[in-house]
């Protein structure tokens, strides 16, 4: 079984979602949004890092799936987003988590079936795939979608490796 932490980084709000995956079955553990105060960026980055470290300690994920930086509205916004990503990634790496990065398009394609999906479509599919009673908040849904994307990618790789090994006579 793998426990996957998904992160949707942001310098104002950082979404998180944690799922477990076993034999192609994904189960919801928790999700939410780290809401950051207005003020100096270094303080907001500290809050992200400490909050992610606490999530890792509490839930024990083994893998991290994080959305890659995309071209934001401005260079300044892209830099802040990159710093928020770093603040979320470092506590995971320090605890030995395997880190995988996916573009927003890859995540949406994996969960919704189209890389051009909107936020409402992502929320709907995350709710359906994880059998949640209600739609998660936007940023939490994006983080859960990142975790699901990684689970789907992981499962596909296991199938490919297994199929290749079977063809070569390695598995019985």
TrEMBL record:
Enzyme class: hydrolase
EC code(s) of this entry: 3.1.21.10
Cofactor(s) demanded: Mg(2+)
Catalytic activity from the UniProt record: Endonucleolytic cleavage at a junction such as a reciprocal single-stranded crossover between two homologous DNA duplexes (Holliday junction)
Gene3D superfamilies, per the entry: Ribonuclease H-like superfamily/Ribonuclease H
Cofactor binding, note field: Binds 2 Mg(2+) ion per subunit.
Active site, renumbered: 8, 67, 139
Keyword annotations from UniProtKB, A to Z: Cytoplasm, DNA damage, DNA recombination, DNA repair, DNA-binding, Endonuclease, Hydrolase, Magnesium, Metal-binding, Nuclease
One Pfam family matching this protein: RuvC
Compartment(s) where it occurs, according to its Swiss-Prot or TrEMBL record: Cytoplasm
This protein's record includes keyword Transcription: no
Chain sites annotated for binding Mg(2+) 2: 67
UniProt-recorded Gene Ontology molecular function terms: crossover junction DNA endonuclease activity; DNA binding; magnesium ion binding
Residues bound to Mg(2+) 1: 8, 139
GO cellular component, one term: cytoplasm
Superkingdom of the source species: Bacteria
NCBIfam families: ruvC
Family under the similarity heading: Belongs to the RuvC family.
Protein purpose: The RuvA-RuvB-RuvC complex processes Holliday junction (HJ) DNA during genetic recombination and DNA repair. Endonuclease that resolves HJ intermediates. Cleaves cruciform DNA by making single-stranded nicks across the HJ at symmetrical positions within the homologous arms, yielding a 5'-phosphate and a 3'-hydroxyl group; requires a central core of homology in the junction. The consensus cleavage sequence is 5'-(A/T)TT(C/G)-3'. Cleavage occurs on the 3'-side of the TT dinucleotide at the point of strand exchange.
Complex formation: Homodimer which binds Holliday junction (HJ) DNA. The HJ becomes 2-fold symmetrical on binding to RuvC with unstacked arms; it has a different conformation from HJ DNA in complex with RuvA. In the full resolvosome a probable DNA-RuvA(4)-RuvB(12)-RuvC(2) complex forms which resolves the HJ.
Name this protein carries in UniProt: Crossover junction endodeoxyribonuclease RuvC
Organism expressing this protein natively: Congregibacter litoralis KT71
